[in-house]
Fold this sequence. Notes:
- Its main location: membrane.
- It is a multi-pass membrane protein.
- The chain is mainly α.
- It has helices at residues 2-11, 22-31, 36-62, 67-76, 80-91, 95-124, 132-156, 162-194, 204-210, 265-282, 289-294, 300-308, 323-336, 361-384, 386-392, 398-423, 427-455, 466-483, 490-508; strands at residues 128-129, 487-488.
- The chain is built from 19 helices and 2 strands.
- The chain has a two-stranded antiparallel ribbon.
- The chain starts with a helix and ends in a 15-residue tail after the last helix.
- The model is unreliable at 224-356 (pLDDT under 50).
Amino acid sequence: MRFVLTAKAILVSSIINVLLVFVPVGIAVHFAKMPAGVIFAMNAVAIVPLAGLLSHATESVASRLGDTVGALLNVTFGNAVELIIFIIALIQNHIRIVQASLVGSILANLLLILGMCFLLGGLRYREQVYNSTVTQMSACLLALSVTSLLLPTAFHASFSDATTANDKVLQVSRGTSVIILLVYLLYLVFQLKTHSYMYVSTPQHVIERETAPGPAAHYFNPSEREPTIEGSDTVAASPVSSGLAGVGPMEGVDAIVPVCSAPTIDTTNEAVEKISRPAREHHKHPHTSRHHRRHSPGGNRGTRAHETNPSPPEHLPSQETGRADFAAGSALEAQSEPPQPRPRSILTLRPSIANVHPTSHTTAALLLIISTALIAICANFMVSSIDNLVAADPGLSEAFIGLILLPLVGNAAEHVTAVSVAWKNKMDLAIGVAVGSSIQIALFVTPLVVILGWAMGKDMGLFFTLFETVCVFVSAFIVNFLVLDGRSNYLEGALLCAGYTIIALAAFFYPDAAAANSLGGGD
């Protein structure tokens, strides 16, 4: 009886689970030998809700295994859907589709998901703040991932003989993959052990104090805005944990676990003011035009802060409190204050329905096994139909399928989650889902797939087409500049979405292997 009640609670927890009806439909159309387009579409839609169930099952199991084991489980299953699709495609020798899908997953998270978060959140709130310290570290990791993709392509272009170039690039790719995995493990230690204090998100009362209505806020009912408990610090979504955040929009994303026992409002405000005041004096010098614009003295938020805070002007926080100030304050507090109870690992703090509907260990394990098996079945049918799909529709290239369609399938659930939390003014969590998933794909999934291909005897390397490497470089370049200031608005989101649309348009008209040259993935 308890199993039935738990299963019912899980199924009705998200609107995405309505798409579970496509699971038997996708299996049926395969055995009915329907057209390849129908098989691909039905199984692609079926994978979306299964990814959400897998995410919830993983979180439920991880919550009962302790911080360390739970964190490792979250890392392993963080991008399980993509891994399953990639492994099946490797087995069926679709190496080019795997390479395009790896790049496409990074692009979908960096441009589409993050852009939608900035766009929709910026329409409801004029500007949204987040932890810039975490995004700066993420920018460095993104730069490393771009380097690992650019260098093999440039290395391949240095050879005059294509056969020799392919052999050497394969060796370089395998060695690079081992190095990247070691960097990723080092990053886990950095984030979970030695510098975990850096990943404390912005206190919600600070976010609310700087929040102003956005250009489209009057279209929405003010009562929809959720109340917040001031003085409660929350844990930012971990970049390495975001891969599992695709459960859905109604899954208790507000139930963010406190870092530790929250101080009073007055204590928190005094601490922030004392620590950030010297940093604000330092930041008065305009480093860039963008920084100067955000700190312009005539802003509406300055007037709003003055109206809502009756304290004397010398005690007022800066009109645009920098995220670097908050991060510096967190670091100083961590070093100066007496030892506090160690917070739970941020890898295990996720927007999950486990906080709302506790799941038994047996139910969670069964759900994990069943959802993984169904994803593997649907992914197998979907990938198997690609050859017939491309043959039946010459206008649909493998590049478009791998670069656009498959990443959208694998990231659809976490797309909904990221946008929903951004809509609720929780940008730390939204960026952790979007940017963090890109980092995990670039530094964990990509080298792991190369090593798995090595073990299976497949020529899976890091030599991507010139078009794919340029797309990744430009995307990471734009995102790095947009996220470093710790603030977002709807225009930045529109820019990211426009960039993804341009890439999708170019990918749709990308030539097939027969018409492309060697740098374009030609035979």
